[in-house]
Structure formats: structure tokens, C-alpha cells
């Protein structure tokens, strides 16, 4: 009997019996349940077969990134297809019209799993959380917040983390980490169709001080135009399968790159400043989020950055004006922070390091409250 296991989540008995029969033919052990349970996210299932009705009932869908989600749909629908894409589905089968495709899908997945074992042995793959840092206002501090949070996750909680700089035109992460590398994710374009962890690691830079992997953008406006949504999506999904946290530093503009990042995110961290310009930008961005159903089901977190006693607005004022709770406030401490940025130095040195300045302490608390 194969070590592979599958779980089927649907109330439809016809689909249940059909899937069990097909899976048994492939020597895959199957379990059936009519509703999603949080414990399923921690279980070692290779396949998650879920129908659309069940997906809609799940408040926050998470499954191990090393697993393969197969959506079961009753009709061809753009909205359903988009929902499955956001859930990270490997494929979607229209039942019963496309039932015959299941054998090919299962065989394909089995081949991928065997190839992964050959390349990486029995390594446990990452939990696949994708954290996107975004702000519609430039200069809000999202690159800094993304970097500090990535370092805290790795140093304080021993998570495997990769940062992807999606600010393709001008970059930013290379300055925070003091990285000098001419390679970028555009170098992955030729191998996009067979993208693997080996390709990612060959292009990414590992920061020895923090342990973070950093995947830089081209930092070139002309080359940024060559970046496709398909490439960004494949990179994120490949990283999801091998890292505990994928941190995306998104550009301010809503374009192909930023939309792909927002669409793939399991959590969107909106960086807000306590001033009227930042609030105005947030309201425009929030309208867009609602229109495209981004950050729904509790996946949007609001981080108030650069809070100071002399700020134009306080946390309660901001919360009241935008009609949403602020998840955390990061205090302003420019002069203490500046030397770390100038030297490309890490913000934390060891596991018990609470942070040597106010923002570092606040960020560590935010990580423990929101990301773990």
C-alpha cells in the first residue's frame, strides 16, 4: 500500500463513492468527511478533494503547502475558478463531466511527489503561509516591516523564511540586507515550466546573519515590464511548498505583479501611517480590495506604523475613521533605527533578543500576535 493518503470533503455521496473507488485503484488510502476541521491542516494528506460548497463554508482555508488540493465543481464558472485559485488548488474537476481526468491528475501528482523525494529525501515541506506587505502610499515603511518580520520569524521562532522583492522597478530589500547581487527572479523565466526549489535557491541570496533567503527583483523599470503574472504566481507557489513563510514586499502601484502577489497571499498586511494622506490612500485601496475580494475572511491585517505622541492622529482616531480595528502599532524611533539601515545590519541577533529599539520590540509582539 502506498504511503499516500487523501481526504474527501463533500456531502455528495456520489462523488464520495466515485473518488474512493478511483483512489483505491491507485493504492491511496481515503478518508471521508462532510465538513472541514482545523486538524486537517496539520494532517499528512497528499490529496485534499474538496467540493465548492464545502470551500465556501470554510472561514479560513489552510492546507499544508506540500499537499495537492483538487477542487470538485458542478459547473464551469469563472468565480468558482478564481476561488479555487485563491485556495491554491492544483486542479479543478467539473463533476461528472470531467471525472475521467482524475486518473491523469492523480498519476501526475504521484510523479511529482516521487520526484520531490528523490531530490529532497523525506524533508518536511513548509507550512506555506504567504504574507503580503502592501500600502497604497509610498514611503509607509512596508519594506522595513516585511524585513523585520521575516527576521523575527527566523531568529525568534526558527521558521524557514524567504523574502521576495516584488518592487521590480527599483527594489529595496537589497539595501536593508546589504545585499549585492545581479541575479533576480527574471532569471527564472527560462525554467518557469519546471520551476523547483533548486532553481529558487540558485537565484536567491541567503543572508548568513539572519538565515533569511532573499529573492530580488530586477530593480530596473525596463526589465520590470518583462515580468509576467504567470512567473510571479509560479515562484510564490513553489516557495510556498518549501518554506514556512513567504514574505512579499509589494509595490505601491496596483499592476500585474502586485495583483498576483495580493491574490496569492494567505494574509495581507496593510501598512498605514497616522496621517490624512495615508488614510486617503487606504480608502481607495480598500475599495479595490472589496471589489476583487482581496483580504476577505479575516485575511487582512492593519499595521499602524510610525506612531508618535505628536502624530496627527492616534490609533483610536485611525480605527474610528477607517471603521476597522488596528491589529498593532509600531512606534517611531528614527534615530535608533537609522544605523541598522545604513550598515545593512540585522535587527535581531539571537532567539532571546527582544529588540534594541522600539520598532523592533513592537514588531516581535506583532509576529507573536498575528503570524503564529
From TrEMBL:
Q: Which Gene3D superfamilies match?
A: P-loop containing nucleotide triphosphate hydrolases
Stated name of the protein: AAA family ATPase
Matching entries from InterPro entries are given as: AAA_dom (IPR025669), CheY-like_superfamily (IPR011006), P-loop_NTPase (IPR027417), ParA/MinD_ATPase (IPR050625)
Q: Which SUPFAM superfamilies match?
A: CheY-like (SSF52172), P-loop containing nucleoside triphosphate hydrolases (SSF52540)
Originating organism: Pseudalkalibacillus berkeleyi
Which domain of life does this protein belong to? Bacteria
Where in this chain does the record put each AAA domain?
Answer: 130-280
Which Pfam families is this protein grouped with? AAA_31
